[in-house]
Structure prediction request, 509 residues.
Amino acid sequence: MDAEKIFTEHLKGRVAVVTGGCGGIGQAICRRFASEGAQVIAADVAPMPEALQSSAQYFNHDVTSEQSAQDLMAFVEQQFGHLDVLVNAAGIEIEKTIEETTLDEWQRIFSINVTGTFLTSKYGVPLMRKKGAGSIINFGSYDGFIADPSLAAYCATKGAVHALTKAMACDYGKENIRVNAICPGFVATPMLESFFGDSGDIESLKQQVRDIHPLRRYGTPDDMANLVNWLAGDEARYASGALWVLDGGLTAQVQQMRL
Amino acid sequence: MQLSGKVALVTGGRQGIGAAIVERFLLEGAKVVTCGRGARPSDMASNIDWVQADVSCSGQMELLKDHVVTHYGALDVLVNNAGVQIEKTLVDTSDDDWDVLMGANAKGVFNAVRSLLPIMASGGSIINMGSVSGNAADPGLALYNASKAFVHGLTRSVAVDHGPSVRCNAICPGWIMTAMADSAFAVAEDPAAAKQDALVRHPAGRFGTPADIANMALWLASNESQFVTGQLFTVDGGLTAASPLNPSLF
Prediction:
């Protein structure tokens, strides 16, 4: 967390569920929400990192399972009675073209990135309705607008999340449930390490990709948590159905010419 | 002969993309008028009607309208192709730069449409030259990028306000190999490397040619696009469907 950050506790008393809450970006979101006064549930199939235990409760949640989504929300209802904020951050990436992608791989990435967002939201919305308000933040990607090579299924899932975000915003706006998506670029996480994993001179490659960014750096999980935190709270009360690109300027340009 | 009997005006038809559109429209049977700031080029084909006129000057666009009315009666197709590019960042841009660039690229389109739309035949087609840089920025081309975003916005307004009598669309070219493209690459620290970087990011495997843009302009001018209006058509070999990362890095 940034040293100079001032917490306003604007989420004091709010109940927040973060799927993928034990992942790189998810942990940063859980910690930020806790710092802002929220009750946080890190919902993940991965185990709870020790460092997160002071910030969040853990719920073992498989986003691909309807039963798991029902169990998660039953737990939230029993513990808190309602839900204020849902962050659908669980996601995976497959680095393949469509010819290289097996049907099983295709179905797996869709079941996590798209079906997971659908299911957790489906069972989360009724708990937001009980409160009369809510904020859902999905994870899109700039890859939902434009493509990177050999990420075909991933790009398709993120395009689906973008459309689902707008559809949910249309359906639930009248109940004061807002739905937005953040669209990260390159964020320094284990997923990014895996993206660079098998590519020759990795350090040189990382530097080249970093320097294509107008801000000349990769995003951090805290950069993502800053925007998620804003979208979660009342300052964002008029924001809904929008796709928020957060990529250090990468996709504002056609091409970087000053490498 | 898709434009048989039609009258077309292409601004800035002396060179580059404009010249390719003029040539194609003639081949398709249109009568073609074009204009530019200079005198008639000595090597210009005799079947092209050249008018010396500067799009940035509203009075000269009115005279151009009078010329079209006198010689052809009405106009079927207007291609707002004339444009300039200044390779500067915002802080380096002077007042004179603003007048030159916005005068041609923004006010020029405004002037031409305002003067010529009243003499367009019902069913006419206006085609503006936007750019992929009106949607995402090319470095060191601040006002150019902004002027093209203006063109995109004006395209939609003209389509909305002046349908159904005319249609109005814009073409957004990517890297088309013209003198203007070379000037844009010249802002790079290493122009040759930047050009190579751009080339490998084209799914089409090549840069565009003026003829590629003329193909799109012909379709938008023709009756094949009768239900098409208010839209931007990107013709960039796939460049902006991909992220700015260079796939050869991986």
Observations:
- The two ends of chain A are 30 Å apart (CA to CA).
- The longest strand of chain A covers residues 177-184.
